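Hey, I'm writing a tutorial for new members on how sequence and structure tokens pair up, and I'd like a real worked example in the thread rather than a made-up one. If someone can provide the structure for the chain below, I'll link this post from the tutorial.
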Amino acid sequence: MDTDPGANPDAPPTPFAMEEYQIAAEDEAEQLDADAEELAAEVRLKIQRSSNYVLTVVLYAVVLFFAGMSTRLENRRLRWVMTISGCLVLLAALGWVATFPVSLAV
């Protein structure tokens, strides 16, 4: 009432708009939101890493498929193509795994 909102156009429209009015829980909520976003970013990174490892398992299964199919083929040239394809996929997967981060924490 000291600001005389009826006559003073620069007066805040409500007491809640004044600088003196501050909710303590609002600061805590903003800090908790910032912490939650930081943790969510960490979780997204770990989900991506786990997806990469699952994909490497699939690539290793493809290598085993090529190796197994190469033993069933009668044509010698096609057998070599399957074996070499499997080796190339294996080398690519191993090279990709070598770029993954290593966690030293137990």
